[in-house]
Amino acid sequence: MEGKKQEEQEIIDHLNDENDEEQTTDENQAEVVEEDSEIDQIRKEKEEVHNRLLRLQADYDNFRRRTQKEKEADRKYKAQSLVEELIPVLDNFERALQVEVEGDAAQNFASGMKMVYDQFQAALDKEGVEEIPAKGEEFDPHLHQAVMQVEDENFESNVVVEQLQKGYRLNDRVIRPAMVKVNQ
């Protein structure tokens, strides 16, 4: 009988061991499922953070480019308000130099004024101010302001016949359009 009891006890122990293994396996599988769901969640969060980082980097690059363009425009056109104030002075200088003078003292004065005018013109050129070509050019409403139309057989249609007032631009921006007569 004792052999039978020992045999029964071994069978019970064996069944308990198998039951424990199944429970452990079930617990391990539950842990694996939990770990997998945590890993999936962490991957999703990582992907979201990565996408946010990419958008932020793109925003920063756009901001940097935009501020760079603004700085370039500021440098390029920094003298615009000063040039707008000086153009009428340049016009008056040119009118003064067209006056005929007589006598040595007046000639010396006129040549001194011409030197100052040339220096003034050179300073404006250095800043990027240039005269807009007009006479003989095709009329361009972006560069020229037509104040009169004439009929002249020496010029083709829509060509500037005469410049009444000089026009100027700073780099590629028109500061003042040239006032012109245009052939019909």
TrEMBL record:
Gene3D superfamilies: 3.90.20.20, Head domain of nucleotide exchange factor GrpE
InterPro entries with a match to the protein in the record: GrpE, GrpE_CC, GrpE_head
Biased composition (Acidic residues): 18-39
Primary location class: cytoplasm
Basic and acidic residues biased stretches: 1-17
Family matches, as CDD domains: GrpE
Matches recorded under Pfam families: GrpE
Location(s), subcellular: Cytoplasm
Keywords, comma-separated and alphabetical: Chaperone, Cytoplasm, Stress response
Keyword Transmembrane helix annotated: no
Stretches for region Disordered: 1-40
Protein's job: Participates actively in the response to hyperosmotic and heat shock by preventing the aggregation of stress-denatured proteins, in association with DnaK and GrpE. It is the nucleotide exchange factor for DnaK and may function as a thermosensor. Unfolded proteins bind initially to DnaJ; upon interaction with the DnaJ-bound protein, DnaK hydrolyzes its bound ATP, resulting in the formation of a stable complex. GrpE releases ADP from DnaK; ATP binding to DnaK triggers the release of the substrate protein, thus completing the reaction cycle.
Family: Belongs to the GrpE family.
Subunit structure: Homodimer.
Name of the protein: Protein GrpE
Source species taxonomy: Bacteria, Bacillati, Bacillota, Bacilli, Bacillales
